[in-house]
Amino acid sequence: MRVLLAPDKFKGSLTAADVADRLADGLAEAGIDSLRMPMADGGDGSVDAAVAAGFTPHPVTVAGASGTPRYARIAVGDGSAVVEVANTCGLATLPNGRKLPLDASSLGVGQAISQALRHRPRRLVLALGGSACTDGGMGMLAALGVTFADASGQRLRACGRSLARVHTVDSSRAVRLSEVDIVVASDVTNPLLGPDGAAVVYGPQKGATESDVRFLDDGLRKLVRAFVRSGYPDAATVAAASGAGSAGGIGFAALLLGGTIVSGAEFFLELLEFDRHLPDIDLVITGEGSIDEQTAHGKLPAVLAARAHPTPVVAVAGRNTLPRDHWHRAGFTAVYSLSDYTDSNTADDPDLTSRLLTRIGREIGRIPAISG
C-alpha cells in the first residue's frame, strides 16, 4: 500500500512540509508507507514547493511590506526562477502583524525579481498569494526601474497612498523582460477595479476601512489612466482582465509586463510532476487549513482530486464546513477536520495541530481498506 501525501500549508500554523511530515508519522505508526509531496497554490510556501521539486534556494535581501529590510528566498532551477510575494512583501512581513492598507508596498517582490534575473532564467514564475498591499504593482515596477510622478513631476513613493496622485509613468529606464516568459501563478480571477476589484474585495482583509477602500479603488483607476496617458494604450483592457486584481493589483502590473496568469494549483501540480507518481499510488491525502464551499472552485485540494481520479483522495483540514453530501462533488472520499477532535483553535497552536495530524494519519492508516 502506497500513500501520496500532497497537502498545502495550514496557514498560520504549519508549512505544507510540516503537515506532510506529521501525517506520515501517523501512517508509519499504522505500518503504512508514504511519499511526501508538499504542495502550494501560488501563495506562501510556493518557493518551498519549488525547492521540494529540486530547485535550488537562493537568499535575497528585500524590503518587506512596510519597507523594513528582510531576508527571503527565491528558487532557481531548470531555466526557471520562482519569486513569491508572501515571503518578500506579504502580510507575514508586517512588523508585529500590524496591517498597513495604504502604506504597504510591493517593492520587495520587485527587488526579488531583480535578483532572480541575475540567474538569467528563461521563465520567471511570480507566486502572488498572501500580499499585504493594494498598490497596483507600483512597488514591484519601481524596483524594476519604472518611475511614477505627480502632475508637477515630483517622484512618488510606490504605495497605495500614492495611487491617487500618479499622473505619469516613465519606463524608459526599466529592466527589459522581453526575453523572459513571465508566468503569474494565482487562483484569483478578480479584475483590478470596481465592486469585484482588488480594493473592494481584498482591501478589508489587509486592514482597509470603508473610506480606505474607496480611496484605493479610485487611486487604482487613476493609476490606469496614468498608464494610458504615458504610452500604455491597452492598460484599461489589462485592468479588466481576469486576475488583474490579484495581490492588490500586482497581477495588473505583471500583465503589463507581458505576463500570463495561470492557475496556481495547476501550475504547481505540473511543476512537482504530480501525475507521474499516480500509477504507483493507492491513496492520496491532501488538505489545507480550511475546506468549505469555495474549495470546489479552483482550490488546490479539489484541483488535485480531479487530477488524481480515479485514485481515492482523502482531505484533511483544520476546519471543514463542506457538507458531507458535497464531499464527492469536490472529489474527496472522506474529509477529516482537526476541529472535530478539539475545541481549541488549532490555527494558533502548531503543537496541537501536529499532534492531531499524527493522530489522523494513524486513523487513516488503520482503515481496513487501506491497512488490508
Automatic annotation (TrEMBL):
It comes from the Bacteria. GO terms for biological process: organic acid phosphorylation. The keyword Aminoacyl-tRNA synthetase does not apply. InterPro entries: Glyc_kinase_flavodox-like_fold, Glycerate_kinase, Glycerate_kinase_RE-like, Glycerate_kinase_sf. Coiled coil: none annotated. Keywords: Kinase, Transferase. It holds the Pfam family Gly_kinase. GO terms for molecular function: glycerate kinase activity. Belongs to the glycerate kinase type-1 family. PANTHER family: GLYCERATE KINASE. This is Glycerate kinase. It comes from Nocardia ignorata.
